[in-house]
Structure formats: C-alpha cells, structure tokens
C-alpha cells in the first residue's frame, strides 16, 4: 500500500510539472505569435490606413529616418527637408545603432541621433484618442508627436558630461488633428554599450494600451510580491533553524529575484523611487545576475548532497567573485559588454546542475525529477531573456515568470521536507513514548530484583575496588618509573655512548683514562638515579608504606645529628644543632606521629643538598621551633646553610622533579639527579606536613619542614 501511494504521489507531481511546462510553452507560443496583420514602415512612413489601431494596437516595426550625431526638432527637420530635399538615411527599429553601417563605417554603441517616423491613419482613428507606450530606451530621449513635446526621460546631450541617463517606461496620450502622425525622437547614449530604440514602441487606442499596461504592472507586482514573500519566509525559517542551509540559499535566491523583477519590465522601482540613480539600478541588476548562479548551486548542493563537485564550487566562486568585482568598480559602459559572458556563466551553472539532477532522477532520489522539470522551465526563460537583451529574441522579460514557477516548486519541495521531518519526529516521539511505557513497567518489576542483587554485588564491588586500586597504583607506578627512566636517563646514557665511541674510535688515546672515569662516574650516577626514580614513583603512586608512631622530635633530631655529624664535618663544613629551650619544657616536648626512617631520609636529602652547595669552611645548621596556627601546634625543623643561596624567583620550582640550579662560585662535583627535594616533599606531605624554602639569593638558604604535633604529646 505504501509503495502504491508513493508511486501515485510521484505520478501526480509529474503530471503537475508537465502541465506547467506545457502551459509555459503555450504561453510562449502565444506571446511570440506575430501580430496579424503585421505592418512595417518603409523609408520612414507607416501606412495604417487599413487597420483600426484604436481597437487593435500594433508594435511599431520597420524603417525610421535616422539622423546620426544630430539633435533635430520637428521644425529643424522641416527646414532641412525644404532646403535639401529628401536625402535621409534609414534604420530598422527596434534595434541598436551599434554595428549600423554609415558611410562605410560601423557605428559604436555611444553617441546621439534623431529618429523620425510618419504614420498614416485610417478614417476611424482620426478622431480617436491615441496613445504610445514607450519602453526603456537607452538611455535618454525626447519625443515629439506632431510637433508637441510629450515625453522626456533623462537629459539628452551631445557628450557624456551633458547627458543624464535614466530608465523609465512611459504611456503618452495625444489626439490626432488629421490622418497623419509624425513622431520625432532624440536619443543619446554615452553610458551603455548599446544605444537607440532597442524595444518595441506600442501604438494604439488610449483605453486599450492603458488596460494592457495596467495588466502588465499588476502581473509584475504579483510576481515580485510572490518572490519577496517566499524569500522572506524562507530566511525567517533559516533564522529559526540554522542547521538547514537550504532555506538560507533559497531565501536569498528568491529575494534577489524579487528585487531584480523591480528593475526590469515595467521598472516598478522607478515608480516607487523615481530618483533612483541609474548606475545603482544597473549595478544591482547585474550583481544579481552574477550571484544567482552561485547561490542556486549552493542550494542544489544542500538539497542533493555531493551533486556539486569541489572544483565546480571553487571555480564558480572565483568566476562569480571576479564578475562582481568588475561590476562594482567599473562603469556601465565596461561591464555591460560582459552581458553575454554573464549569461553564458549562468546558463552553464544551470546546465551543470541539471546534469547532476538527471543523475539523481535516474537514481530515483526524492524530489530530483520535479526539480529537473522546473529547472528546464527556468533555463528556457533565462536563456530567452539573455537573447532578448542582446536583441536576438522578440520576447522580453520572461525570466521573472519562469523563476516564480521555479520558486513555487522549490517551496513545495522544501515544505514537503519539513512536513516529512515533522512526521518522522512525531512517529519517533510516539515510538519513544511506547518504549518508555514498556520500560517503566519492566522497571517496576525489576526494581525489587535489583535491590536484592545490589546488596550481594556491593560486597563483591568493594573487593574488586580494593583490588583495582592496588593494580592501578602498581600500574601507575610502573608507567611513571618507565617515563622517568626514559626521560632522565637519555642524557647520561647518550653521554656515556659518546665516550665509549671515542675510546673505540681512538679519537684521543691519551684521554682514554679520563673517558673511562667519566663513564664510571656516569654509571654511578645512573645507578643512584634509578634508585631514586623508583623510590619517587612509588611515593607518588602511594605504594610506599609508612609505620607511623609517636616520636619526640627533640630525640629524633639529636639522634639524626649524632649519626651524620662526622659525614658533614668530613666535607669541611661546620655542623650545628639548635634545639633552643625545648629541652627545658620536658612536659610539653613536641611529639609527631612519624615514620622515623622515612623522615630521616627526607631530612638527610635537605642536609645533603646544603652540603653540595656550601663551600668548605661553611656552616650547616639544624634548628627546631614550635608554632601554633589555628589551634594546631607544629614542630618546625629548619636546615640552614651558608652557601650562595637560591634566586627568590626559583624557590617555587626547586621541589619539582629534575629541577637543577647551578649556584655560581660552587665547585662542581658529581652532578645531582634533581630528585632529592622532590622525594623530600613527597615524604613530608605523607606526614601531613609542608616543606618550603627561603633565600635572598646571596647569603645561603633555609628549608623549613612543618609537621603537625599530636594532641597527647606530653604523655
């Protein structure tokens, strides 16, 4: 059933599209049918004695008298005829004087001239009120009927500075006094590639031409309003749902077409804004022509993804941008010569897109067939307009109608997409609601079972969590140790490799013993570094266990001093222990819960660091103080040296792993690993304490280890 409906919908759309195409072809045939009977002027005289033009208007077609580079009034023409006789030249109207052969030379599009036509009326038309419908004439003109000036558009002059171009359609009325009507028209053009009377002038009864003109205006207003409303509607849709760019490009396309329809045909823009600059009017029209092809290509790519190739995207963007820049920066006399090239570009856009649409229609992509059919209609009307504006077609301004049909079809296509999306959302919402109801029912049944299983799983989960944490700490320690070894051993190993190669290659045999000494020292350093890296990685991952017990800090420091006194003094340094008056406060001696062995290691790292950067004859001093902060007592152990100190701006960095600072004036021994202070910080923090350093960068440094005292330290 669903397949039958889908096939039926496609058949209905196909019939609708075929009807539209047939209707447009029929309209084209009716519009393009020649006037019957068809009258043409010969040598400036049009014989209409056999036709009732007040009832059956005609288009003036044929030879007019042509006075090149002359601005003649009807009186001037009469004087010349009386003086020189009939030696006039003739030009076919409608057509531009561009390419007209005069005295063996072809005229260009710029210049000025006077045209004259004499019309002989029938007896029925002598007492009728007649009218002339004047199209846009490039680009300024004056019209006399029987010696009376009836129309003037722009300012006619003999050079560019004296001519004011303007575009406007006119409907002028007059009452013939006899059976003869003389039309004299001065035309000047210095701003466009084509000059002259390039479109048909309609001649007939005032009532009939007024009705025809009003119908044309109404039709163009309908087309323009339809395009603008459709464009604004789709731009608003894009504003509400920015994800779908098809509505953006389609809205821009129809908006631009609506604006262009104001600039062609009956020139509605000049009726709404009579003072619109002529140059602005032309630039807007040409910019819309150039950009419309690119915009419709982007729209097509949104509707049918991957139908436009990347190279076509890039090429059309470059070509369209180049044309738009030329139109903006050059005068109309230059860019109007590109009309044929612009037309070819737009037509190629549409042909390329239709090739992709044919492929999509063959694959039976939804909407491709209707898109293709209306694109054919639009292409026919667009090609006709370009032919018309190049004087190769008698039918003008058909593209607005074709584009209106195109936009209506696209609006239906987009609306169907929105409708289908909304239907799918409703369907999905219903399915989700049904699924949710089923899940709620299942959840009520499973809730009791889950609660029963949760208690059993909780115990197993706790066991697994403990095992997982252990494995995680072990893995983290392994990864950190591997990272440390990879990072920190690369330089000494590379150095050792260089010395080994130097010995093998016998670069300097006399220095082999020195190289071997370097290798031995580096080996010792690497061995010590591996031990420290392993210990630090275990500290950072929490794999080191501590045996905490209450310890009197005074006793701990005195034992530490006695153990390392000879080591410090053998290094040529004085070693002092300053416990202060804490010995006299035996009931209140500070007691810290500590792992004495680990804390001794941390304290030795500080003393070793002080020994390394203190010259012989210097002093290393250990002191103890007690302070109270926020009702908590702290035992503060300080290690002070008389070395050169540490720059104040580096005090925060010295506890980082691998941080090394070479103090000036200190003899270099075995290079340190940069891990001692990092290990010290980890051990102290594990005891709940802090470690910090003070130095002015000149007179030594002091390291403070603060450890919290336990409450029952006096017992």
From TrEMBL:
InterPro entries: 7TMR_DISM_rcpt_extracell_dom1, Galactose-bd-like_sf, HATPase_C_sf, HATPase_dom, His_kinase_dom, HisK_dim/P_dom, HisK_dim/P_sf, Sig_transdc_His_kin-like_C. It holds the Pfam family 7TMR-DISM_7TM. Residues 484-711 form the Histidine kinase domain. GO terms for molecular function: ATP binding; phosphorelay sensor kinase activity. Its EC number is 2.7.13.3. Residues 422-452 form a coiled coil. It is a multi-pass membrane protein. This is histidine kinase.
């Amino acid at each position: 059933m669903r397949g039958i409906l889908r096939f039926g919908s496609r058949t209905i759309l196909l019939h609708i599209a075929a009807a539209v195409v047939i209707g447009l072809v029929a309209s084209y045939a009716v519009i393009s049918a020649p006037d019957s009977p068809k009258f043409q002027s010969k040598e400036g005289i049009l014989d209409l004695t056999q036709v009732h033009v007040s009832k059956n208007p005609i288009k003036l077609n044929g030879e007019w008298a042509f006075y090149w580079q002359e601005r003649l009034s009807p009186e001037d023409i009469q004087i010349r005829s009386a003086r020189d006789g009939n030696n006039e030249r003739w030009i076919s109207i409608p057509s531009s004087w561009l390419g007209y052969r005069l005295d063996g030379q072809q005229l260009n599009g710029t210049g000025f001239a006077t045209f004259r036509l004499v019309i002989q009326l029938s007896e029925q038309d002598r007492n009728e009120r007649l009218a002339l419908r004047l199209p846009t004439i490039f680009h300024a003109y004056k019209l006399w009927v029987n010696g009376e000036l009836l129309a003037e558009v722009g300012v006619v002059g003999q050079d560019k500075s004296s001519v004011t171009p303007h575009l406007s359609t006119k409907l002028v009325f007059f009452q013939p006094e006899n059976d003869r009507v003389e039309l004299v028209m001065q035309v000047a053009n210095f701003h466009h590639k084509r000059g002259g009377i390039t479109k048909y002038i309609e001649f007939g009864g005032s009532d009939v031409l007024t009705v025809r003109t009003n119908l044309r205006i109404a039709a163009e207003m309908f087309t323009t309003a339809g395009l603008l409303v459709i464009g604004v509607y789709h731009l608003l849709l894009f504003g509400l749902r920015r994800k779908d760019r098809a509505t953006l490009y389609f809205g821009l396309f129809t908006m631009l077409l609506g604006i262009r329809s104001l600039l062609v045909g009956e020139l509605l823009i000049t009726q709404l804004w009579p003072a619109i600059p002529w140059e602005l009017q032309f630039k807007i029209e040409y910019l819309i022509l150039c950009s419309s092809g690119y915009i419709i290509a982007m729209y097509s790519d949104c509707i049918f993804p991957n139908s436009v190739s990347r190279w076509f995207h890039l090429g059309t963007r470059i070509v369209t941008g180049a044309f738009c820049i030329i139109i903006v920066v050059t005068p109309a006399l230059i860019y109007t010569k590109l009309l044929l090239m612009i037309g070819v570009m737009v037509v190629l856009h549409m042909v390329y897109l239709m090739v992709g649409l044919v492929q999509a229609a063959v694959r039976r992509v939804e909407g491709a067939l209707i898109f293709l059919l209306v694109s054919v209609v639009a292409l026919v009307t667009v090609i006709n307009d370009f032919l018309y504006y190049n004087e190769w077609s008698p039918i003008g301004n058909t593209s607005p109608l074709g584009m209106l049909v195109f936009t209506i079809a696209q609006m239906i296509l987009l609306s169907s997409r929105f409708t289908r999306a909304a239907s799918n959302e409703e369907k999905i919402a219903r399915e989700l609601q049904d699924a949710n109801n089923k899940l709620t029912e299942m959840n009520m049944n499973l809730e009791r079972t889950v609660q029963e299983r949760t208690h059993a799983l909780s115990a197993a989960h706790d066991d697994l969590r403990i095992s997982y944490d252990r494995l995680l700490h072990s893995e983290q320690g392994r990864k950190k140790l591997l990272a440390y070894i990879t990072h920190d051993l690369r330089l000494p190993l590379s150095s050792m490799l260089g010395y080994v190669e130097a010995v093998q290659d016998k670069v300097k045999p006399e220095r082999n013993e020195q190289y071997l000494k370097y290798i031995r020292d580096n080996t010792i350093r690497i061995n010590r570094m591996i031990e420290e890296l392993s210990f630090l990685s275990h500290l950072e991952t929490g794999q080191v266990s501590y045996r905490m017990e209450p310890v009197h800090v005074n006793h701990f420091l005195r034992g530490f001093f006695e153990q390392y006194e000879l080591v410090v003094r053998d290094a040529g340094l004085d070693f002092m222990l300053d416990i202060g008056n804490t010995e006299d406060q035996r009931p209140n001696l500070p007691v810290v819960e500590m792992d004495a062995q680990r804390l001794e290691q941390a304290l030795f790292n500080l003393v070793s660091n002080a020994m390394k950067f203190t010259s012989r004859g210097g002093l290393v001093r250990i002191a103890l103080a007690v302070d109270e902060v926020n009702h908590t007592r702290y035992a503060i152990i300080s290690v002070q040296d008389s070395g050169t100190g540490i720059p104040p701006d580096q005090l925060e960095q010295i506890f980082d792993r691998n941080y090394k600072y070479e103090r000036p004036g200190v003899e270099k021994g075995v290079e340190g690993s940069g891990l001692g202070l990092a290990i010290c910080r980890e051990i102290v923090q594990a005891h709940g304490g802090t470690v910090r350093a003070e130095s002015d960068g000149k007179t030594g440094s002091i390291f403070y280890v603060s450890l919290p005292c336990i409450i029952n330290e006096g017992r």
